[in-house]
């Protein structure tokens, strides 16, 4: 049985709700503006943010972390690719609000997200991480993800090219 939420050292992880949308979109848009975690410079408008997050809510694939009653991070998974052959492979996203890093929030979110994906019958989870993001790579390694490849100069942001590290976690036992 997978817990609906998890509490760790002042961090509560729970299923996301519609009223979390504004806080989650603000965290995402901050990452767009200030990091290389998302390779876009275009933030979501409020309407785009609501539509994007509604997809996750409909799938049941979004979690939030609360610290002292405030949203301090979110995690979600989405289909890795659109073709039906990939229907049981998802890609994770984990983001922590600025000023809340190093508190175990990302780890609590990813652990709960993996459990949620297993509970919903997903077979494999992919992490696509900017190769210089050692913190995210370590976070995923600690939860059993394996490095499966690196795409050289796969994307650009802030006038620079970035490599993309691909990591994978099998959520179900290997097929016989």
TrEMBL record:
- CDD domains the record matches: NAT_SF
Query: What range(s) does the N-acetyltransferase domain occupy?
Result: 11-172
Q: Does this entry carry the keyword Magnesium?
A: no
Looking up InterPro entries in the UniProt record yields:
Acyl_CoA_acyltransferase, GNAT_dom
Q: Which residues form a coiled coil?
A: none
**Signal peptide residue numbers:** none
Name recorded for this polypeptide: N-acetyltransferase family protein
């Amino acid at each position: 049985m997978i817990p609906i939420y998890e509490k760790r050292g002042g961090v509560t992880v729970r299923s996301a709700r519609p009223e979390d949308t504004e806080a989650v979109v603000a965290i995402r848009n901050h990452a767009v503006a200030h990091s290389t975690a998302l390779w876009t410079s275009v933030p979501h408008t409020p309407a785009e943010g609501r539509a994007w997050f509604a997809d996750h809510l409909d799938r049941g694939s979004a979690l939030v972390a609360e610290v002292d009653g405030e949203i301090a991070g979110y995690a979600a998974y989405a289909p890795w690719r659109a073709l039906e052959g990939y229907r049981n492979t998802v890609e994770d996203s984990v983001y922590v609000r600025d000023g809340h890093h190093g508190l175990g929030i990302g780890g609590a979110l990813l652990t709960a997200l993996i459990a949620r994906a297993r509970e919903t019958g997903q077979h494999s989870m992919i992490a696509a991480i900017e190769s210089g993001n050692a913190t995210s790579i370590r976070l995923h390694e600690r939860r059993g993800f394996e490095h499966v490849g690196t795409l050289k100069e796969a994307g650009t942001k802030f006038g620079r090219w970035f490599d993309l590290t691909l990591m994978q976690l099998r959520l179900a036992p290997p097929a016989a």
